[in-house]
Amino acid sequence: MGARVAVAGASGYAGGELLRLLAGHPDLEIGALGAGSNAGAPVTAVHPHLITLADRTFGPTTAAAFAGSDLVFMALPHTEAATLAGQLPEQTKVVDLGAGFRLKSAAAWDRFYGGDHPGTWAYGLPELPGARATIKAASRVAAPGCYATASIVALAPLLAHGLVAPEDIVIVAASGTSGAGRSATVSLLGSEVMGSVSAYKVGGTHRHTPEIEQALQTVLTGPGATGGQATISFTPTLAPMPRGILATGTARLVQDASTAELRAAVASTYHGEPFIHLLAEGQWPATAATAGSNAAHLQVVADPHAGRAVVVSAIDNLGKGAAGQAVQNANLMLGLPETAGLTALGVAP
Question: Could you give phi then psi for residue 333, rounded to 5 degrees?
Fold first, then answer.
């Protein structure tokens, strides 16, 4: 018998992806499945693709329901997650897929979310410098946001090696509709989304902005970094696809850094990483190539005409951007192989 894990918020898109990954995990046993208003419904009534869980039923999202779990995944709105986390025993490990415990700054929390700051947990992006040891030692981990993951893994190596200036970073990213969750919303109807790409939360108002800046700031204290304050202009867009994120980041080059230098920085940073891949020169990331995987595909080039670095990343927002990364964190916290139950291989066509 492996470790027993529970899922709070199991009926949403991220919760469903968690169940898909856990159903094939060699070392984890699926315990209680909390689903709020879907409590009492069969799992396959909500997630018909999870046929091996046809005998399972959703239950209530309460601390009592998760008693005896070795680890609880929370895929809940941040207010509900904060309440549940406070009710779980200290010895129960928790991975939160929501935003509640990502930010260190109470002022940033108040500005972008409002209300009392829930607190700060270990930040669950294993590929950041020093993060693995912190995650392994933690009992509570905040998994990064999807836009944040795509942006951070792309830009962190360039900042850590002092190849770009941190004060002038521009990120434009496109997400599939599942990133907005499963609740019925007019703007997410097929008739509204198909054949259209639209921007939203423009002008520094998207909630992942302080999270990206916070994570990028941590790499600016490394031996090769130039220091300074990480400042981003972030524009998210909604693309007519169910899943995937394509993020394009640009930053001002330092000392006319070349494409070769930029590629060397990314390659050395992620050497040996199982889920982050620098593509061959001339090959650009595409969301379809990462669908169903826990992979991030990167490409970087210098634009000497504009004096900027251009780095593009693609992830599955439900994979490396949510459920896959949560499982990666859980593996580390439970002392399991980090890649257990996960794949870097996408699904095609």
Answer: -65, -30
For residue 216, CA distances in Å to 110, 243, 342 come to 20, 25, 26
CA-wise closest residue to 119 among 130, 127, 111, 109: 109
Residue 10 sits at the vertex; the CA angle it makes with 337 and 133, to the nearest 5 degrees, is 30
Using alpha carbons, select from 151, 121, 142 the residue that is nearest to residue 326: 142
Q: Spot the catalytic one: 146, 165, 276, 312.
A: 146
Q: Supply angle C-alpha 236, 319, 144, rounded to 5.
A: 60
pTM of the model: 0.95
Specify whether 140 is located in the same domain as 155: no
Query: pLDDT (tens digit, 9 = 90+) per residue, 90-137?
Result: 999 999 999 999 999 999 999 999 999 999 999 999 999 999 999 999
154 shares a domain with 123: no
- How far is residue 197 CA from its own chain's centroid? 22
Asked if 327 is an active-site residue, the reply is: no
The pLDDT value given to residue 179 = 77
Q: Is there a single domain that holds both residue 188 and residue 118?
A: no
Distance CA 280, CA 91 (A): 45
For residue 97, being part of any structural domain is answered with yes
Task: Please report, to the nearest 10 degrees, the dihedral formed by the alpha carbons of residues 283, 288, 293, 297 taken in order.
Answer: 20
Residue 349 falls within a domain, yes or no? no
**pLDDT, tens only, 228-246:** 999 999 999 999 999 999 9
- Can you tell me the distance from the alpha carbon of 19 to that of 17, in angstroms, rounded to the nearest whole number? 5
CA triplet 98, 100, 103: central angle to 5 degrees? Answer: 115
- Measured N-to-C along each axis, helices 13-23 and 324-333 cross at an angle, to the nearest 10 degrees, of 50
State the Cα–Cα distance between residues 85 and 82, nearest whole angstrom.
5
- Amino acid 329 reads N
pLDDT tier for residue 1 given thresholds of 50, 70 and 90: low
Cis amide bond preceding 349, omega within 30: yes
